[in-house]
Amino acid sequence: MAASFDSGYPPPLTSEQSDYLLSNIRDWSILNGLAVRPSSSFVSEKIDPSRSLALTAPVTLFPSLFPRVCFDEARAIQTAYNELYASIANDEEWLGEVVKELAEVDDFISNLWDVHQAVKKEGYVQDLSLGIFRSDYMVHKHPSNLDAKPEIKQVEFNTIASSFGGLSTKVSALHKHLLSISAYPPPTLPFISDSSLPPNPSISSISRGIAIAHKAYNRSRENTRLPLCTLFIVQDPENNAFDQHALATNLLTDHNILTFRLPFSTVLSHTHIPSDSPFRPLIYTPPHSPNTLYEVTTLYFRAGYSPAEYTSQDSWKARLHLERSAAIKCPSILTHLAGSKKIQQILATPSSPHLSSFLSSTSSAEYIGRIRDTFAAIYPLDDTPEGQYAISIATDADKARGYVLKPQREGGGNNIYGLKIPPFIKSLGNDSKKYRGHILMELIEPPALRNSIFRNGDVKSGEVIGELGVYGVCLWRHGRGQKEEGVILENWEAGHLLRTKGRESEEGGVAAGFGAVDSVCLIDV
Amino acid sequence: MAASFDSGYPPPLTSEQSDYLLSNIRDWSILNGLAVRPSSSFVSEKIDPSRSLALTAPVTLFPSLFPRVCFDEARAIQTAYNELYASIANDEEWLGEVVKELAEVDDFISNLWDVHQAVKKEGYVQDLSLGIFRSDYMVHKHPSNLDAKPEIKQVEFNTIASSFGGLSTKVSALHKHLLSISAYPPPTLPFISDSSLPPNPSISSISRGIAIAHKAYNRSRENTRLPLCTLFIVQDPENNAFDQHALATNLLTDHNILTFRLPFSTVLSHTHIPSDSPFRPLIYTPPHSPNTLYEVTTLYFRAGYSPAEYTSQDSWKARLHLERSAAIKCPSILTHLAGSKKIQQILATPSSPHLSSFLSSTSSAEYIGRIRDTFAAIYPLDDTPEGQYAISIATDADKARGYVLKPQREGGGNNIYGLKIPPFIKSLGNDSKKYRGHILMELIEPPALRNSIFRNGDVKSGEVIGELGVYGVCLWRHGRGQKEEGVILENWEAGHLLRTKGRESEEGGVAAGFGAVDSVCLIDV
Questions:
Q1: Cα(A302)–Cα(A330) distance, integer angstroms
Q2: Half-sphere exposure of A393 toward its Cβ, with a 13 Å CA cutoff?
Q3: Domains by residue range for chain B, with CATH
Q4: Cβ–Cβ < 8 Å for B472, B493
Q5: Mean pLDDT of B249-272
Q6: Fewest Cβ atoms nearer than 10 Å: which of A72, A454, B215, B404?
Q7: Binding-site annotation, residues of A for substrate
Q8: Cβ–Cβ contacts within 10 Å for residue A291, how many?
Q9: How many angstroms separate the CA of residue A452 from the nearest CA in chain B?
Q10: Using a CB-CB distance cutoff of 8 angstroms, which residues of chain B are in contact with residue A55?
C-alpha cells in the first residue's frame, strides 16, 4: 500500500466518534496500567496525600504514520549500535581523553570519571556490564529535494535510564485494541490495519535483559546463602513509576525474580557491602523486613542520570558505593559516560575515524556506512578545521537556520535554534571556553504530521513531530588492561517507542510535560 | 493446618511494613485494573471534568480468614442453586401467584410482571435465558454453642447485575502477589500460603457464560448479515465500570466477541427492532458509527435492577422493548423476578414445600437438605401460623434481638435490626398491609474477624464482617405452556467473591461506600 504523509490522516472525528474513542482510551489504559500518577498541578497533594490517584498516560489518539523503510532500518542497525557503545565503554583510555577535554566545562562528567577512577584503583570485582539502550531518531526529509526518500537521523543515544519501555508495549496494544473495537472510523482504514501496526515486545524483551544479568550474576557468585534480588534505583516521587512497574512485574511473573525499588537518595541507608568480603556483594536490607538480607544481582538505574540529582557529597558517595559493589550495573559508570553528548558529537563529526575503528573488527564497511548515515552532522566549536567551519555557520543568520546549538553539559534544556544562534554566539564574546561548551548540530527536518494528544483529560490536535526510539539489550564482559578485549555475551534489539509532541514545542520529553507516547502506523512511501 | 479466628491474625504492622504493603497495593492495582473512578466527593468534577482519574478499588490489606469447609460447601451447591432459580424462572404460574400477593406493597415487582405479561401476549421470540447469578453467604457460628462448627447462611441470591466478578479475580491475584513479594510479614505465614489462597476464575468463567449465550444465539438466528455484538446495559455514570470492563475485555480477547456499553437511559435512542421482522432482532446503532448496524445477541444487565432507575414511562418502555427482542437476556424478566426477596422468603419459610418441589426431579433429598441448611429462617408477617409466630417475636424485645426486619420491596436499605424492631412494629399501628410489606429474618452471627481496608487513600483497621459470594452461570431453554418443561443447557459454578465491611456498618454494599473487595484465606477450623 502506498500512502503519503499528506493524505488527510487522521480524519476529523464527529463528537460521537471522539467520545467513543476517548472513553475507550480512558478505560483501557487504566484496565491495563498505561497510566501515570497525576502531577501536583493537576491534583494537589491536599486532595490525595497518599498519591493513590492515577490517570491515563499521555497518549496519542491515533498511531502516527511512520515510513516502514525507516522503521525497518532503525531496528536492523540496533545490534550494531549496542556493540558500538559497548566497545566505547570498554575503551577506558579513549574515554579518559574525552573526559579530560570536557572536564573544564562539565563537572558532572568529571565527577563520574572520578568515581570510575576510584573503583579502578581499588580494583573492580564485577566485569559484567548490562546495557539497556535506546537509540532515538527522527525521520528526515530533505526540505529542498521533494523526491528524496525519508531517512532516519539520530537525535541521541541513551545508555542510562532509557525510559518508556514499559508503557510502549501498552500503547501499541492500545492502538490495536482501538482498531479491534472499530473505534477508528473508516477513512483510517487504508492506513491502520493489523499489518501496519507492528508488535512491540519492549516489556518482555527489556525485562529479559535484566533477567539474563541476574542469572549471570547467580552463576558467578561465591557461596553466599542470601536470597537474591534486583534493585531498581529510582527517583522519589516518580510520576512515571508504572512504566517501571511493568518491567518489575514481568521479571516476577516470567522470570521469578524479585525486584525492589530504592530511591537514589536512600541508597546508603539501606544497602551495605560487608567489609570482610573481597567479593564485595551488595546487600540490601528492606526497611519493611530488616531481618531478611538480600544480595543484589543487578542494579537498574532509573535515577542518577541528571546532575540535579547529585545534591550533596553523599549522592556521589552513593554512586561510588554502588559502582564498587559486585552487583552488575545497568549501566556501569563507563557505559553511562559513553552515552554523553560529547561522544555522539565525536562519532558524528564528518571527518571522524572513530566510528570505523570501534566497529571495524566485527562489521563490514557497508554496515558501518549505514550507521554513519543515521548521523546528523555534529560539529564542535573549537580550533579544529571542523570547529572553525561550525563557527562560520553559527555566526551567519542565513546558514544557521538549519542548525541547533546544544550545550555540551548533560542535563537537557537550553537548546538554541536557528535564527537565535548568531546573537547567542555574539553574547559569548571571545571566551573560547564558552564556545567549547557547545556543539552545533544539523537540524533534522521531520515531515509534517497531524495527530491528537490526550493528556490530563484534555485533547489537543494539530501538527506533531514523532521521535522513534529503538531499545537494545547488551550484556558484555569488560576487558581489563590493554591486552584483554571486551566480549559481548548477549546482544539484541528489544522493541521500540514512538514519542510524539506538538510541533510548536521545541523540547521533547514526555514526562517533562510536552509530548505523548505513541505507536507507529507503518506506511510505504 | 488448624487455626482459629482469634489467633491474632492479621498481625500489627510496623510503619515500614505498612508503607511497603500499601505502596505495592496502590501500584499493582493500577497496573492491573483493580480500580474504580473516584467519587465526586473525593475528586470534584471541577478538577477532573472528563473523569480520567482512577484509583485503587476499596480492598482489604490481607485476605480474610474463611473456614475451608464453608467455602467448599458454598461452591459445591452452586449448580443446584443455579438449577433452582432457573426452575423458578420457568414456573410462570407459580411466580404469578407470588407477584399477585406482592403487588399491593411493591409497584416495581408488579411493573416487571406487566412487562412479562405484555411480551407473553405478543409471544416470546427467544426461549433461551442466561443467568449470571451470585449466591451470597455469611459464616454463621451459633453464639451460645462454642463447639458448633461454622456453617454458611445465605444472605441473598442475585439474579441480576451480580457485580464484582471482574474485580474479584484481581483482588485474589493481588493478595497472592503481595505474598510473592514478601509483603506479608512472617507472623502471617501459618495462615497465608499458596494452598490457602484458592484460584478465582470469576472473570474468565463469567465471560464464558456470556460467550456461550452469544454463540447459541448465533446458531439460532435467521440469515441476517449484520455483524453481531453483545450489549452491556449500564448505569451512567458508573464508578465501578472497571469491574465490567474486565469482562468485556475478556470477551474480546478470549472469545473475539465485541461488546458495547449502552446506558439504560439511552436504550430507546440507539436500538430498534425492525417492524417487518417476525424474529424481532435487536439492532444496535452505535452513535460513533451510525452507518454500521449490529445485531445484539446477548443483553447483559448491569442496570435496570433498582426501582430508582425507572424514572419515567420511557424506562418501562425501554425494558419492554428489550424483553420482546430476540436477544438473549441476562436476565429475562422472569429470572429477574425469581431473585426478589419474596421468593427467598418463601423458600426459607421453615415449613415451605417449594424447595423440594422445584428440585425433586433432579436432586436427591440429601442434596436438597444441604441447600435448605444454608437458609436462615425467614418469616412473613401475615395471617399464616408462621406469620403469627414471627409477629410474636418481632414484638418481644428479648426475642427480636436475634432478628432483622426487612422491607419486601426491592431496592435495599431500611433494614431494622434487633432491639429496634418492636418499637418499629408498634409504629405500624394495626395496618396489616404495612405488616405484609416486611419479612423477619434470623440474624446471622458471623465470627469476629480483624482486617484493614484501604479506601480512597485511607486505611481503616478493626473488626470486620465478610460476605462470600459464589457466582453461577446457567443457560437454559424456557418451557412454554403447561406441558413443556425448561431444559438446562449449561450450568457451572463460576468463581467467588469476598466482600468485607467494618463491623459497625450494618448495611453491606462495597460500591455504596461501606466495604471492600477481599479474598479468602482458607483455614481448617
A1: 9
A2: 25
A3: 15-374+444-457+464-523 (no CATH), 378-442 (3.30.1490.50)
A4: yes
A5: 98
A6: A72
A7: 134, 160-163, 238-240, 244, 302-305, 499, 510-511
A8: 8
A9: 16
A10: 48, 52-54
Distance of CA A149 to the CA centre of its chain: 26
Question: Which residues of chain B have a CB within 8 Å of the CB of A43?
Answer: 43, 47-48, 53
Whether chain B has a CB inside 8 Å of the CB on A229: the answer is: no
What value does the mean pLDDT of chain A take? 92
The grid cell for B284 is: 444496535
pLDDT for B486-500, tens place per residue? 899 999 999 999 999
Confidence band of A350 (pLDDT split at 50, 70, 90): confident
Q: CA-CA distance, B144 to B139, in Å (whole number)?
A: 15
Helix count and strand count (H, E) for chain B: 18, 21
Of B73, B92, B386, B410, which residue is the catalytic one?
B410
Residue A52 C-alpha, separation from nearest chain B C-alpha, in angstroms: 6
pLDDT at A163 over 80: yes
Asked if A252 reaches chain B (Cβ–Cβ under 8 Å), the answer is yes
Q: What is the pLDDT of residues A374-413, one digit of tens each?
A: 999 899 898 899 999 999 999 999 999 989 998 877 665 6
Best A13, A25, A30 residue to mutate vs chain B (most B CBs within 10 Å): A30
Q: Do B50 and A457 touch (CB under 8 A)?
A: yes
Q: Complex ipTM, two decimals?
A: 0.94
Sorting pLDDT into bands at 50, 70 and 90, what band is A414? confident
Annotated active-site residue B96? The verdict is no
Q: Do A48 and B457 touch (CB under 8 A)?
A: yes
**Distance in Å from the first CA to the final CA of chain A:** 9
> Among candidates A117, A136, A130, A95, which has minimal Cα distance to A340?
A95
CB-side neighbour CA atoms (13 Å) of B52? 28
Q: Look at residue A58 in the predicted model and tell me its pLDDT.
A: 97
- Report the alpha-carbon distance of residue A374 to residue A364 in Å, rounded: 16
Residues from chain B contacting residue A20 (CB–CB below 8 Å): 286-289
Q: Which residues of A touch B20 (CB under 8 A)?
A: 286-289
Q: Tell me the pLDDT band of A484, cut-offs 50, 70 and 90.
A: low
Nearest CA to B254 out of B201, B300, B216, B294 is that of B201
- Report which residue type is found at A437: G
Task: Read off the C-alpha cell for B401.
Answer: 434481638
Round to whole Å and give the CA distance between A438 and A433.
Answer: 9
Confidence (pLDDT) at A513: 44
Q: Is B134 a catalytic residue?
A: yes
B413 is in an annotated binding site: yes
| pLDDT computed for residue B509 by the predictor | 42
